[in-house]
Amino acid sequence: MTAHRWGAVCTCLLTLAGCGSQVGHDVVPNVAFERSERTPVAKPSAAGDSDGIPKDGANVPQPADATRRIVYRADVDIVVEQFDPVPAQIDESVKAHGGYIAESRITGSQGFPRSGRWTVRIPVNRFVEFLAVVQRLGEVRTISSTSDDVTAEYYDIEARIRNKQQEEERLLELLADATGKLDEILSVERELSRVRGEIEQSQGRLRMMKDVTELTTVTIAVGEVKDYVPEQTPGYVTRIQRAWSASVAALVDLMQSGSILVVALVPWVLPLFVLAVVLIVLLRRHGRQR
User: Fold this and answer.
1) Residue 17 needs a FRET pair 20 to 30 A away by CA distance; which of 44, 68, 164, 253 works?
2) Could you tell me whether strands 70-80 and 215-224 are parallel, antiparallel, or unpaired per DSSP bridges?
3) Which fold has domain 70-148+217-224?
4) How far apart are CA 193 and CA 187, in angstroms?
5) 241-247, long-range: CB < 8 A, 24+ apart
6) Residue 77: is it exposed, middle or buried by C-beta count within 10 angstroms (0-12/13-18/19+)?
7) Is the dihedral of CA 12, 17, 22, 25 positive or negative?
8) What Å distances lie between residue 29 and 51, 61, 211, 226, CA to CA?
9) Nearest-angstrom CA–CA distance, 63 and 43
10) How do the domains of the chain map onto residue ranges?
């Protein structure tokens, strides 16, 4: 490569490095999923975005009919009187709505109050329907939901990836034509490595945002409480049902306790019988001697 041509290459490299210092080192903004309002989607101007995106990337416009990217979350706290069927009911409902259980935890044991907590992922188009099903599992103590429009961040990251890919292509062209000094070639390779790292980081953020906007997150907490009384006064029919259930439960507990007592006394029957016979015999002999 002639000195004139390598001088041109160095000039291009310095230009790219200047652009990289302006954009490449911008940290992709963290997405805060608990805000309820976001900046509306903005179309990039012909001269490029004002936040540092290079002008040479402005020829890739953002779609005018861009799909909104919204993050939905919900937390449901429910109490039930019978915990046994709840895990199977949740599993069945999640599968029926095309989702999956990301995390679950059940505490307690049979005979003692139990509780469970599930984190499930449900497709956005089944979110409202799934919440309605979950609320029928028991009596709802609290329910809350949030939504966050992250459309602007999503398409901003897409634009940054396209710009960086163009920068990567120019660096590859420079590297393919480079026949100069070793330190100059290494300088191009370092710049190329930096750009590739930023592309991979942005692509990872984009995949994460795509996942959280296509699948909603629902956290379900279920606690077992015997004879739970909600803050709102229950109706007459509900009170009768609970009185009947409580009476039956008390009778069952009494019968179980009685049967357990009988079983516990069985091993003592034979020794007590033998002891009683011996005492009777001794008492009779003592009476005859008198």
Assistant:
1) 44
2) parallel
3) Alpha-Beta Plaits (3.30.70)
4) 10
5) 245/81
6) middle
7) positive
8) 12, 21, 17, 48
9) 8
10) 3-67+149-204, 70-148+217-224, 237-290
Q: What is the residue type of 284?
A: R
Structure tokens at 4: 């004139």
Long-range pairs of 12-16 with CB within 8 A, sequence gap ≥ 24: 12/170, 12/174, 13/174, 13/184, 13/187, 13/188, 13/191, 16/167, 16/170, 16/171, 16/191
- For residue 149, what are its two tokens? 């429009």
> pTM above the 0.90 mark?
no
Q: Could you report the per-residue pLDDT of 221-251, keeping only the tens digit for each?
A: 999 886 555 555 556 776 787 678 778 777 8
**Chain segment 110-159, per-residue pLDDT in tens:** 667 789 999 999 998 899 999 999 998 888 889 998 988 888 888 888 89
Block residue for tokens 């004879």: 227
* Runs of H (alpha helix) within the chain: 3-19, 86-96, 127-134, 151-177, 182-214, 236-289
How far is the C-alpha of 20 from the C-alpha of 195, rounded, in Å?
A: 8
How many Å apart are CA 156 and CA 38, to the nearest integer?
A: 13
Task: At 61, list the tokens.
Answer: 């416009």
